[in-house]
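Preliminary data (for renewal application), XIL complex.
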Amino acid sequence: MPAASRRAMWWLVSLATAAVVAVAVGVAVTRIADDGTVRAGGDSGPSSMAPAPSPSVCPAPTPASGLRALATPCGIGVGAALNDTLFSDQTYREVAAREFNRITPESVLKWSTIEPRPGEFNFGPGDAYVAFAEENGQRVHGHTLVWHYVPQWVTDASRSRDELREVLRRHVQRTVAHWRGRIASWDVVNEPLGDDADLYDNVWLRTLGPDYIADAFRWAREADPDAVLFINDFDIEGINAKSDRLYHLVRTLRAQGVPIDGVGFQTHVAKMTLPDTFEANLRRFADLGVRVAITELDVRMPLPVTQQRLERQAAIYARVLRACLRLPACDAVTMWGFTDAHSWINREFPGQGAPLPFDDAYRRKPAYWALHDTLAAAAADTPRRR
Ligand code: XIL
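Predicted structure:
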């Protein structure tokens, strides 16, 4: 679709969404300029730092219209992973609809939910997320088809190589086919690499050999030729041994005709530090001819929360988004949740927390304004996205 009509369509969807969704939430008062500097003060409206976007192309958002109203007309995805809080907490639901133009179900598309017992497919939970996204004009990113976390029946040692290969084929194809045309992109293979930068020693590698990766992508492509197919991993944000390995893997597989369309960078930022080589790394992957996406962004901090940490966190959010905005191959920035009240970090990293742009009470944090102001600045002056 030509860029102009794509933009027009996005704008229509945004308008409709802004019209139906209007929720007041509390606001933070620290603002981030495009260069990452932080200013105290400000109000709940769009930043006065950002030049006003041209109304005909990127209309000025109102505070109630959310990040998506800025992102969508300018051609970038801004997403969040959602969990079942969506079905019990009206505020969560409203913020999710208002702020994001794409969503990733956080857990319900994983193997243990989709196929808890051999051949017993359970698509109901995923259907509910897809319905939510469709009601709200959001794209769905599917996470994930092939990973090492699988129910015990999958790893049953008595199964032959051919049987396990058939188990994998059926799982990938049934799942992708179920949402054909409705789930726009998939993390086909998640976390294929180990910390030693070699292929991770999982049931798939042990039983099927390295070809499981190529097979999974080919099966997914067959099941939905229009879905955008990603390989996704963590600790690959900078240029390092692991990202080098992934780079070579993607290059080799694509040279063999394996349909890998994109590389997902989870970007669970640790120690409040993003590698210096982050931008250059994204660029080298883009230069392979694939899309790149930030798929699971969060920036955890040691507790307690302090203003200084919030500001440092905000600068990292801004930097990640800016890197994506500047790279035409970069599809989207998706966060792994959106409110500190419901983040996996609270469970998995004791002593650390507050990783997301909304706090526990859905108030916008400096990180939110960092994203907002970065998008507003891009809307005002990005030749790249127009
Ligand atoms: C996490 C979820 O957020 C948790 O709720 C769940 O208990 C475990 O998985 N990388 C991934 C995600 O690819 O699937 C993980 O999600 C976070 C790390």
